[in-house]
């Protein structure tokens, strides 16, 4: 992560901070999100030979995502099993309808535009509803962050 911070700073970005070893980066930038995404992908490609999806969210968006969570944490048996999937774009409604058939009382989720709210009461190590499952079924790129990580990033 230190190398990533350095590469982004050398690319001209300010206020670069990283959070844990999962690729979470805070950047202060006046670039619009689509331009910023392309520039960060270039940094990753040129400095680390990585071709990975990049998801951009403004800090205010993260605050709103937490506020819009349809699953009140105090009502969940295991609040630590709440996570958020950040989707590369809004999935087609027919894909959303299809994937919703996999929801249950223990593994429930909701999709709001390009956010997947996922409560996995079985625990993430036991579920078949993985990040790859949602990407394949929704035909989007997705990166998942748990509640604690999302909350921390909203406070950067």
Could you characterize what this model shows?
The strands form 2 sheets. This protein has a 4-stranded antiparallel β-sheet. Strands 1-2 form a two-stranded antiparallel ribbon. It folds into 2 domains: 2-48, no CATH class; 59-154, 2-Layer Sandwich (Alpha-Beta Plaits). It is built from 6 helices and 6 strands; from the N terminus they run αββααβαββαβα. It is globular. Helices cover 37% and strands 22% of the residues.
Treating each run of at least 4 consecutive H or I residues as one helix, how many helices?
6
Top-tier CATH class of the largest domain:
Alpha Beta
Oligomeric status: single chain
Described by strand count, sense and barrel closure, the largest sheet is: 4 strands, antiparallel
What would the average pLDDT be, to the nearest integer?
A: 94
Overall body shape: globular
- Annotated CATH architecture of the largest domain: 2-Layer Sandwich
Low-confidence stretches: none
Which strands sit side by side, in order, in the main sheet?
4-5-3-6
List SSEs in N-to-C order.
HEEHHEHEEHEH
- Determine the structural class based on helices, strands and strand pairing: alpha+beta
Beta strand count: 6
Taken as a percent bin, the fraction of beta residues is 15-25%
